Amino acid sequence: MALTGASPARAEDTPGAPPRNAPWRSFEVTTEVEIWPQDLPLRLWLPLPLYRDTEYQRTVDISWTGNASRTGIYRDPRYGAPAFFADWTDKASAPKLQVVKHITTTNRSVDLSQPGRAAMPSREELDLYLQPTAHIPTDGIVRATASRILPISSRTPVDRARALYEWIVENTYRDPKVIGCGTGDIKFMLESGNLGGKCADLNALFVGLARSVGIPARDVYGVRVADSATWKSLGKSGDITKAQHCRAEFFDERFGWVPVDPADVRKVVLEEEKDRILPLDDPRVKLARQTLFGYWEMNWMGFNTAGDTRLAPDTAKPLGHFMYPYAEGAKGPLDYYDPQNFQYRMSSREIRA
Questions:
Q1: pTM for this model (two decimals)
Q2: pLDDT at 215 over 60
């Protein structure tokens, strides 16, 4: 995609660096679902916050109301992705469900100038995030592309991951025509030469390239829950029904899991201003490019790292990712990219002390 409108940035357009050590914030995130009677019987899975508390996100409480025939919280057997499950079999009343998640978050930052010795995950966990999946192969054109990108001097996982990150920022673009967050079919992207997409495409490309050269890496699927303190385009509050966002991270034993988000750099390029595409040397883009290697602003709630997996209870088909409500009705899966006809709504509000 050609860059246009490369006019000098105004002083008021130049953002300050985002806060690294921000206080913890509390959010209430609500998902409301209504089901058309003609879709019954129906099974529904809603993504829930990360099943383990982390140094950047904690789950305080999950509650629900509704008239489902059966409910439960399950984790998929491969990645442990948590899901609220409900089904309806009784057609006597209109199916309704509300699930409320209360979480706390704090900005996530890894100081890459201070290597140490991180706590090591299990060998099984690291091996899982080196494995190929249906949408993220690690051989053929993926491995060949990564090998061409990496400089000879890139010895550490951070050096190699940074080279891959910079290549994605330089060579991909955010395509507003892509539905939802994209499919993450990175082999098709590379073979076709069409390197446009959204977060689940561009960050999946980072993950696949990293895995192909032996760096454990994973997508982290979630949803934005508040406005950004620094970039207008990188936040959403209130109605977050269409605010899903995928991030990525890679592992280096000196730092642990390192957060990255090259897709959001390209989002700043395309969406920070409504009337023009920003050049890569715009101060707002340069700041995003520098910041989003080793940093996540936690105006976002992480759900899971599950890619190309079946949920529990077993879904009729594997899901490429799980960050939207997913349902299977009388005529098959409902279209989660069409919330008006699926009849779901997600909202977020910050809880201030």
A1: 0.93
A2: yes
